[in-house]
Each structure stands twice: as C-alpha cells, then as structure tokens.
Amino acid sequence: MKYLDEYRDAEAARKFADAIARITTRSWTIMEVCGGQTHAIVKFGIDQLLPDKITLLHGPGCPVCVTPLELIDKALDIAARPEVIFTSFGDMLRVPGSHADLLSVKAAGGDVRMVYSPLDALKLAQQNPGKQVVFFAVGFETTAPANAMAVYQAAQQGVENFSILVSHVLVPPAIEAILSSSTNRVQAFLAAGHVCVVVGYEEYLPLAQKYGVPFVVTGFEPVDILQGIYMTVRQLEEGRAEVENQYARAVRREGNVPAQQIIREVFEVVPRKWRGIGSIPHSGLGLRAAYADFDAEKRFGLGELTVEEPSACISGLVLQGVKKPNQCPAFGMLCTPEHPLGATMVSSEGACAAYYRYRRQEVLSSQSLVLSPENSAAGLQLPGASQPLVIGEGDE
Predict the structure, then answer these.
(1) Among residues 76, 102, 108, which one has the least CA distance to residue 89?
(2) How many other C-beta atoms lie within 10 A of the C-beta of residue 370?
(3) pLDDT digits (tens, 9 = 90+) for 174-221
(4) Whole-angstrom Cα distance, residue 300 to residue 161?
(5) Cα(23)–Cα(35) distance, rounded to whole angstroms?
(6) How far apart are CA 315 and CA 308, in angstroms?
(7) How many CB atoms lie within 10 A of CB 4?
(8) Which ranges in 44-101 belong to alpha helices (H)?
(9) Cα 103 to the chain's mean position, in Å?
(10) CA 234 to CA 214: how far, in whole Å?
C-alpha cells in the first residue's frame, strides 16, 4: 500500500538504526509526544534497535489519558440522566472515573452511544428533538476542527438540544511545562505529526530557541520514527536546536489554515487541568462566549469538582516521562485493561496499554517480586504472555 508498506520496510528501518548507532557518541534522552508513536515504538521494538546511549521517554501524548478525573465524573453525571443521549469516541467509554466508567452507566440503563464523529452526534440531536444529545469533545488539536464544525453547524441550523463536554488540550504548552520543570531530563522531542498537520510547526520555533532543544516533526510508522530519531540525534550531536520536518509528505510549516480558522471561530485558549499533571496555563480550548449555549457543563449546571487520583496509579509520572509503565508495581496485577487504575492502561494510545499488549511478559518476568506470598495465597495468577511484534511483521 502506498505510503504504508515502504514505511514498514525492515531493511530501511535497519539502515536508519545503523546510522543512528554510527553518529551517537553521547547519551541522549528524547521524548515522543504522541501515544500513536509510543505504541509503534513498543509494538515494533524500535527502542530495542537503538544504541544503549539513546533513551526514549513517553510523554503526555494521549488526550484520553490526560482528561482529568473530575471531567470523567461530570461525563458520568450527565450520561446517567434520563433525558440525555451521551455520545463519545470508543476510547472514552472504559476510562475510569472515581467510581465507574461510561460503559457502567450504559449497563445501568443510561443511553450511552459510541460515535465516529461529532457530526454523528449532531445528527442524533436532529433525529431526537426530545432528548439532550451531548458529545464528549476530547483530543489535541487534531480533533478540534471537527468538534468546532459540529458546534458551528448546530448554531447555524438552530439545533438547540446539542452540546459538547469540552476536554481539548494543546501540545506546545504541555511541552513547555515539561521543559520548565526542575526535574526535566528531556533533551529533544519528536513532535506529533498529526497535530502539526493541523497547526503546523511554527509554535515549536520559540520553544527550540528558548530551551535549546531540537524538535523533529515525525510520522507514525517504524521508518518514520527511526528517521525522526536519526534527525534528532544528528542535531544533538552537532549542538543544534532547530525544528525539522521528517513528516514532509503530510505536514506544512503553516499547517491547515481553514482548520485553524474554524477552531478560532468556535474555541478560545483557556487554562486546562491535565490528569496526573495538574493545571497548565493556556493549554486548553474552551467554547467562546458566542457558543456558550453549547457548553454541556453550563447547560447541566456542573460546577467545580476536585477528585483525588488513585494512590496506586503512577499514570501522572508516566505522562510526564518521569517513569515508564514497567516501573509501576501495579502493572499487570492490580492494573490491567479489564480493570484499569488509570487511563494510560485502557486508552488505545496509552503507554501502559502498549506495554501490556506487547511487552507484559517481559515486564512481569523482570519484576523481582511479581507475586508476593500474600498474593499467591490469595490465588492471583499472572496474565497470559504476549510476544512483542518486530519490524517487518504485519499487524495482528
């Protein structure tokens, strides 16, 4: 398939891996800021092809994972109301709130439906004038244009029974929060190609200059990622801190201008709390005053809510790149996709889910005390093994 098979070519991947090894003379720490890239890295064993001096950290690149716990609880509150049809992408249905998830609400009688587009939710509102239809608007800049268009069309067509629960987050402010942290050890970033398709990459220029770190806009296939790492390491070794575009077949410097225009029409930049990280200024999108009637939080009178994260879950540290999933003592035992402690284990873009799917046998066997005597007495068993895929093999 054009633009797929050639970017999964094993020989091309090995050439980039060899080139990275040849130019690497020092230890470098690089963060990918995209859950899709994280899954590709773990699935295809890309990190295992790199020299030991290269460390890859997984950043807050999963919008489902960073949706704050209190917003999940607000979604559960709305979805349980008899007058509501609550719609969402499938990833959000099993993300745990304080006491339940959206599938639990559905099982208890709530009208919760999975949709593939916010425009599907708008159509449901038109077809069900006696119901309040709410769409859970989650995502980075990538999903913002479609969500903005749904609200814009609802306003233009006078669809008064449609609203959205907004949890949009923006990538550059999160990167700056990481770079400005006293615990930061990231020296370069692989910028998410799909985000840059929408917004371009000019926002990374001042960050590269201010913090002296390279950014390489990178795609999602194995060869993409290895080429992005090669370009990043080359900059680091040469002492450069620039913004380069590996994903040139899809990304332009200015991005998608019409998409940006509809985002600016409907949304404005607001502070946003990130699950496990905290509040980051200027890191979210909220509805402008002209579209406030479509704000589900206001429509259903949901005020401020503060919820504590589960103490056993280290997803916040995983999202910040401080720890990896294999460093969590709950991994694969207390926390599994069937019974997740946090969103990083259940989301299809979550780092913990990637490790569980492709490396759980490796992780569990490397832990010194996977089963304590107490757990053995309780009859707990190890999850089944899962072999990691390697470059050159097809999808499952």
Answers:
(1) 102
(2) 16
(3) 999 999 998 899 999 999 999 999 999 999 999 999 999 999 999 999
(4) 12
(5) 27
(6) 13
(7) 8
(8) 46-49, 63-66, 69-79
(9) 20
(10) 10
List CB contacts of 298: < 8 A, sequence separation 6 or more: 292
Question: How far apart (Å, rounded) are the C-alpha atoms in residues 202 and 237?
Answer: 23
Phi/psi zone of residue 232: left (φ > 0), alpha (ψ -120 to 50 degrees), beta?
A: alpha
Structure tokens at 325: 């999933």
Band of residue 309 on the pLDDT scale cut at 50, 70, 90 = confident
Residues 6+ apart with CB under 8 A from 336: 345, 356, 383
Order across the sheet with 111-114: list the strands. Answer: 111-114, 84-88, 132-139, 162-169, 278-287, 267-274
Measured CA distances, 114 to 83, 119, 259, 316 (Å): 17, 12, 24, 27
Domains and CATH numbers, the chain: 1-310 (3.40.50.11740), 315-371 (no CATH)
Whats the size of the chain, residue-wise? 396
The two three-digit tokens of residue 132, written as one number: 């309040």
Structure tokens at 336: 């599994």
DSSP H or E run through 105:
helix 102-107
**What per-residue confidence (pLDDT) applies to 197?**
97
Residue with tokens 């991947």: 13
Instruction: Please tell me the distance from the alpha carbon of residue 169 to that of residue 255, in angstroms, as a whole number.
Output: 18
Is the whole model's pTM more than 0.85, yes or no? Answer: yes
Number of H helices, E strands in the chain: 18, 11
- Token duo for residue 36: 């899709």
